[in-house]
Amino acid sequence: MTDDHVCEQTTSLALSFSNQAYSRDNDSSNGVHSTNLRNKDKTSVVDNSVHLLESDNHKLQGVFSFGDNSEGCCGLGSLESSRQPIPAHVATLANKKVVQVVCGHRHVLVLTMEGEVYSFGSNKFGECGTGVASSTPIPTPVPITTVNYDERGCSLDDEGRIQTINERIPKKASIPVYTKNGNTKIRRVVFIAAGYSTSFALTDDDRVYVWGRNESAALGLGISGGCVHTPVMNPYLSGLCLVEIASGGVHGLALTKQGVVYGWGGNSYGQAGFPSGSGASSVIAYPTIIASLQCTHFSHISCGKDMSFVISTQDDEVWAFGYNAHGELGLGHLSPVPEPQQVVGLQSKGIIQIAAGIRHVLALSSSELVYAWGENNYGQLGDGTVENSTSIKEIHILRNRRVTQVSVSEFASFAVTIHGELFVWGSNEKHVHGHPSASGFLSPRLATWLSHLETSQVVSGLQFTIVYQNARLQKEIPSSSLMNDWIVMLETGQFTDVTIFVGSQRTPLRAHRLVLISRCDVFRRMFLTDCVESRTGNIEVPDVAPNVYQLFLRYLYGDQISIPLDFAIDLLALGDRYDLPRLKALCEDCLRKHLTITNAAKIFEAASLYDSKELKQVSLQFISNHFGEVVKTNGFACLDKHLILDILVKSPSFLRFTTKSLEEQSSMTMELHKEDEKEESPVHNENREQETQPLVTERHETQFV
């Protein structure tokens, strides 16, 4: 099975089932809906344009979480804080190319481009798959390894040892028998799903692994009850050529490449797709084809707590079944729907995604319109009211916003646009909106306080939210080849119209007038005036080594060079001569990183000569810290006496180092001043300059400069 088989439209399986008591106050004047938990002070509404993090005009990339963190749901590595009121970076995933994130009730699964699965959050029932029954506050790899089954429904490891899940798993003749293959093999996962306390992973070899709570056969293993704390292969789902899996409270759906839908688990309201009620089974022990849906080819599936939806993009239809006490099936009534029924209100609307939560649902169409229905006591339907709706309503505020994905939490809703904008509405209980003080919104509000985050996807659990960039949706734009093309022309000498004679041997280096003019103001002024260089196209640079100047030209043409330490001071001199701050900064960074006792004096001299204030301060501090060693080096001995005096005056280590008396120190300082006075003569000063300035780094311009 390949990635092409997997639907890349990530659907938030936001399954949250708490029935905590709320009181509500409505403020229709500003569209803000205030919600309060009992025994909790009422929160205030603030200007939602406040930015919580400095972004320096650059959007922050990565996985960010906010909201309830009571069981490590935010993946921040700590359980000390039960809430995360503003976005926090999930640092463990910083270097991962994330392609899918799904949320259960209080746990999270993350899938990377490499096929790895990470989990964090609540793990009471093994839903994180780490093998322990305690919360996992930091993203942890989930071991998806080879586990084989024999015809009895027992699992076999790669050594052929039996690892019985439950002896009551019935034999299913159509299930292939997987045999021992030698060594343990890590499976590459291509799709993940999460329910209340359940987790599913589909691998590239068409196997399905499950873990978590198995109440009402929620894992589809053919039995009901118990927990699975590490991933095991589901023999009934493996080998079906699946493209999607969805999980609800205690039920699940699976969609095959052929458009066939399987259902299993709790079926008290018909949410698994089979008749419920008197005489009907309330539990579907293992995945079974939903016969009433066999005449239609389906493309997407979604599960809420006790309800299910299937989408046929081919026929432009949506079917719903299950619990409906609050109108969450969008059928215009409150009666339960024990068997799949077409949602007339969504027919011919081009629905491509459905996000089903506990009691309310959002739908997204191919024309980028957003629809909502179900419970609305906290404004989660986004229509400006708190009235429930049994019928489909378009959220008009989001029209023309180009929405690409929707998600729901317990009492909140979210939408992401193609521009990376995030809209939020409904309750902000436990800061599920990422706003530290707002109570909530009765209609979609642009989350400007999150505008510093690069967002392409949003998912939510009970009362926590995660935003991230889907690596599958990020198209790689080829890098510009302009600089590379310029370098090729420099190296081949094609179309050159300038000759630079470098060094005492006048080594000719060919260049392009247009490139030099566009990259350097000194060359621009040179060629725009009537000087000898402009007329002849010949430039004399006698005081620089040819290999250094060649490297300098490569910087001008390519904007990036790897600076050898041996050339760093010479290139710093050229950066200063040709007024190139970026080149100077690159050289300064190289010298700063390679500062040693041997070269400290030379670097200090270069920093002083070429006006590199920060590098001068760093090298001076280094010399001060290692004065006893630096003073013995040849570089220090060759320093200009003024620079030595500068070091002695500014270095407190000098007084600690010297073994002379205070009188001797004073005498030495006076001698330096006397020598300075002697050198005030113009002739003597000229001789001093010739003695102290090295040829390669001499501050000397071309004829024009």
Automatic annotation (TrEMBL):
Which Pfam families does the record cross-reference, listed alphabetically? BACK, BTB, WD40_RLD
Q: Where is the composition biased (Polar residues)?
A: 22-37
- This protein is called BTB domain-containing protein
Q: Where are the RCC repeats?
A: 61-114, 115-205, 206-258, 259-314, 316-367, 368-419
The annotated region (Disordered) lies at: 22-43, 666-705
Residue ranges under compositional bias (Basic and acidic residues)?
671-705
Keyword Cell inner membrane assigned? no
Query: What keywords are assigned to this protein?
Result: Repeat
Q: Which residues form the BTB domain?
A: 496-565
Record carries keyword Repeat: yes
